[in-house]
Predict the 3D structure of the following.
Amino acid sequence: MLKRQIAEKGKKLQEEHNSETLFSRIADKIKEISAIDSNMGKYGNVQIVMVTYAVVVVFLCMAGYLVYFMINDSSEVINNPYNKRRNILAERVVRGSIYSADGKTLAKTVTESDGTEKRVYPYNDIFCHVVGRMSNSMTGVEMSQCYPLLTSHSNPFKQLANTFRSEKNKGDNVYTTLNAGLQQVAYNALGNYKGAVVAIEPSTGKVLAMVSKPGYDPNTVSYEWDNLIENENSNSPLLNRATQGLYPPGSTFKIMVAMEYIMENPSSYKKYSYKCMGSDSFDGNVINCYGHESHGELDLDHSLAKSCNAAFADIGMSLDINSFKKLCSKFMFNKELPVKFEYNRSKFLLDNKSDIAECVQTMIGQGKTTITPLQNALITATIANKGEMMIPYVVDHTENETNDIVKTYQPISNGQIISKKTANIIGKFMESVALYGTGSSLNSFSYRVAGKTGSAEFDSEGNSHAWFIGYAPAKNPKIAISVIVESAGTGSQYAVPVAKEMFREYLGN
Amino acid sequence: MSKREAAKKLIKLFGDMNIIGVFHSILVETSKYIIIILFAVYTWRCFTIFLGNNTERKEKIYKKQKRIMYIIHFICSLVLFLNSLDYKIIIYYFLQFAFLVIVGKVYPYVYKGMSKTVLSNMLMLLTIGFIMLERLGSDYIIKQMIFTASICFVSLLIPFLIEKFNYFDKFGWAYAIIGIVMLALVFVIGKEKYGARNWIIIGNFALQPSEFVKIIFVFFVAAIFAYSTKFADVVKVSIFAAVHVLILVAERDLGAALIFYITYIVILYVASRNIFYILAGFGAGSVAAVAAYYLFTHVQTRVIAWSDPWSHIDSAGYQVAHSLFAIGTGGWFGMGLGEGMPKAVPVVESDFIFSAICEELGAFFGLCLIFIEISCFIMFVNISLKMQRKFYKLIAVGLAIEYIFQVFLTIGGVTKFIPSTGVTLPLVSYGGSSIISTIVLFSIIQGMYVLNGVKEAEDVKEANSRKRKKTARGA
C-alpha cells in the first residue's frame, strides 16, 4: 500500500516536473520568438521574397525578349539603310549574287586579281530600277536585301577556316521572282518610249517583270552620276516609273467605277442603259467621247468595252462618293503598301465636297486622281485572283553558296477586297474589251485575255499616255500586266502591243 | 590604328613570317568564343553558389570566379592591344590588374565575413566596364579608373562608419531635407546634358546629384518606416517622396524619377507588410505616368521612340534604332572586340553601353550579363533576409531594388523592351557619379552584412553562455 502511494506520488512529481519543464520550454520559445520579433529579424521577409520573385520574372521576360529579338526580328531590323555597318560586313563577306527566277545572274561581285571587288550587272540597264544599284545610295533589291547579301550562311567550319586564312566568306545569294525573258521582252517592246511595265502573278503577288524607261547602266552609274542628276529634271532616268511614277489613270479607272456601280446596284446593273451621242453635258460640264464617236445604245458591258466617256460620267453621277472612296482605299489608294521597294502612294482625292466638274472628270480617269503602274497592276491582279489581293514582292528566297535555302518569302494576302462574284462580273467585262472592244487585237491568242485600255490626257492639246491593264488566260490567270507608254497616244495603239508581246512570251500563242 | 593596319604592321615587324599574321587572326577570331565560354561558366557559377551553404565550397567558387575574371581581362586586353598596337593598353592592363588583385585581397580583410560572391560580381562588372571603355576611347578609361580606385579606397571606411555610428536611423527627416535641397540645387546651378537638367558642373567635373540622393533617399524612407508605418506617417513620407520624384521629373531625369518611385513603393510594402500599398502605389503611378505623358513633350518623345523608332529614325528614334542595329548586327557571338561600330550609337559609353557589349562580345554575352545581374540581386536579397535590425533590412532591400531597377531600365531601354529613360548600367557604364554611388551602394550592403554577422556571432555567444549558466545553475 505504502509502496503504491510512494510510487503514485513519485509519478505525480515526475509529471509535475515534466509539465514544468514543458511549460518553461514553451515560455522560453515564446520569449525567443518575441525577441526576434522585436528585433524584426524575420519581419517583412515574406514581402521581400515576393518582390524578388517579381523582379526575377521581369528579368526573365527581358532576357526572353532579347532572345526573341535575336531569332525573329534582328535580320529584318538590321537590314536598314540607316545601319552603317555594311562596310564592316563587306570587309568579311563577298557580297552575294542576285538571280532571276529562271537562274540568270542579274548582279554579281567579281574579285579582281589585286583583291578589289566590283559589282557587275550583266543586263546593264534592263533591270536597273528593280534590282537597283550599290553606289550613289542603294536602291532596289540591292538595298532591300543588303544585309542578307552580306551575311554568310555557309558551313560554319568552312567559315571559321576562311577567317583563319584571312579569306572572305561568300555571302548568301538572292533569288528574285523576276522572269529575265519576260523582262527583256517588255524592255524591248517599250522601244524608245518612256514608260513602265509591271507584271504580277495574280495568285501569289510575285513580280514577274518591272521595267522603267529611261534607265541607266548600274555598272557605270558612279561615273555618270552628275549627268544622271542633270538629266533627272527632263527624263528622270533614276526614277522607277513602275512604282513611283504617278499618272492620270485615264480610262483604266473605269474598271473601278464599274466595280462600284455593280456593288451599289447588285441586281439592276444589267439593266443599265445609256444612249451615247458622242458627247454629253453634266451640269454644264461637257464630256466628249474619244474622237467624238457616238457609241449609240449601251449597257454597262458595252460602255466599258467601247470605253464610252459619256456613259461613265453618267454612271459616276449616280454613285455614292463616300462608298466609292472606301472601295478605292481598300484597293490601297492613299495608303502605304506593305512592299519592300520604293514606291509612291496612288491618290484618290474625290470626296463629298468635290464639285461636279471634278466628279465627272474623275469617273473617266482624268481629274486629280493619280496612279502608279504598280497600283494598276495590283488592281488587275486582284480582279484576276477573284477579289483576293496578294501583296507584290520581288524576292523569292535566299540561298547560301552551296544552294541550301536560307529563307523563303511566302506570298502574303491582303484580304478579300471585293467579292468573288463582283470580280467575275468585272472579269467578264474585261474579256469583252479584249474580245471586241478597244483591246480586240488581243483576241488572236488560243486563250482569252481580259483587259482595259486607257488614254490619259496630260495636257490641253489632247496628248495622252497610252495605258493597258489586263490578265491572261482569263479562265486561269497566270499573269497580270500593267503598261504605260508616255506621250504616245491611245492605249489600243501603243500599250496593247507591248502587253501582247509579253503574253506571247509568257503564255505562248 | 585599324585592325588591318595593325595586322600588317605585325607581319612587317616579324619579317616575312606569315605565321604571325595567321596567329593574329586566329587569336582575334577565336578570342570572342573563348570569352563567351568563360563568361558563361562564370554566370553558371553565380547560380550554383546558391546550392548548399558550405563556406569552404563558397571560398573555392570565389577563387574560381576570380581566375575566370583575370583570364577574360587578359584576353580582352591582349586583343585590344593587338588590334591597335597602342602601348597605353599594356599600362592600363597592369594598373587594372593590380586594382583587381588589391581590392580582391584588401576588401575581405577590412570587411570581415563579407559576401565574397558579391565582391567578385562587382569586380567582374567593373572589368567589363574597363574593357569596353578602353575600346571606346582612352579619355573615358583614365577618368573611370581614377574614380573607381579612389571610391574603392574611400569605401574601406564604410564598415567602420556603420559599426561606430549605429544611430543612422535617427536622422529620418534630415535625410529628406538634404535630398530635396541637393536635387533642387540642380535647378539653381544645374546644367543641361543629353536632354536632362540633372548635372552640376564643378571645375572639370560634372556631378549628377540624383546619383547620391538615391542613397540618402533610401536612408530617409528606411529610417522612418523602421519605426512606424502608421497611416499618418505613411502619408507624410509619401508627400516627401513625391517631392523627390516631381523634382526629378521636372529636371527631365525620368530614369531617376522611376527608380525613386519604385524604391519607395517596395520599401513601404516590406515595412508595412500591406499589399494595399503596392496596389495603391502602382495605381497612383499609372495615373501619374499617363498624366506625365500628356503634360510633358519629352515623355511623349521617349514613348514614340520606343513604340516606333523606325518612323522617327532621324529624330527621336535615332538612338534606339542604332542600338538595335548594333545588337542585331553583332549577332549571338558578336563582331569581336574592336571590330564593330558601337560609336554609331549616341552616348554609347554611358546609357547605351549594353548595346556596345552585345555588338562586340555578342548577344549571348549580353544574356549572361543579365543573369549575372539577377544573381547579384538575389545575393543582395539574401543579405537583406538575414538582417536582424529592421532599419538595416529596409536599407538593404531599398538599395537592392534601386540597383536592379536601374539595370532593368538601362538594359530594357537599349533593347527596346521598355522606353529608354537614359540611366547608366551600374559599374559598367562610364560616369563618375554613377560609379561612385554604385560602389558606395555595394559597400553599404556589405558593411551592414558584416555588422549583422558580428552581431549574430555575439548573440550566439551570449545565448550559449546563458545556456551554460542555466545548466550550471540547474546542476
Q: What stands out?
A: Residues 33-39 of chain A have pLDDT under 50 and may be disordered. Chain A is about 40% helix and 15% strand.
